[in-house]
Design a protein that fits this description.
It contains three helices and no strands. It is an all-alpha fold. It has one domain. The radius of gyration is 14 Å and the shape is globular. 21% of the residues are buried.
Length: 82
């Protein structure tokens, strides 16, 4: 399996699990998985040759999603399990 396809699948698994958590009425944890899945997908889009003109924008979006997922994850750790 190509490594680029594997990264897309990994992002889709995270995104799918986020949808599952959302349907399970846990939107806080779902937001962690959804943003992490989108971060994986956007990070892989950066390496696509057809999107080279948008590389800077995609890198910025990827970093914003990574930081957002990290902050939400820390929030979930702090307030959900106490």
């Amino acid at each position: 399996m190509d490594s680029r396809i594997r990264q897309y699948l990994f992002g889709l698994v995270f995104f799918g699990f986020g949808v599952y958590e959302f349907k399970k009425n846990d939107p806080l944890e779902a937001s962690v998985y959804l943003t992490a899945g989108l971060a994986f997908i956007f990070n892989n889009l950066v390496s696509e040759p057809r999107l080279y003109d948008y590389k800077r924008t995609l890198v910025i979006i990827t970093w914003i999603l990574i930081i957002a997922a990290s902050i939400i994850f820390l929030y979930v750790l702090q307030f959900k399990f106490l």
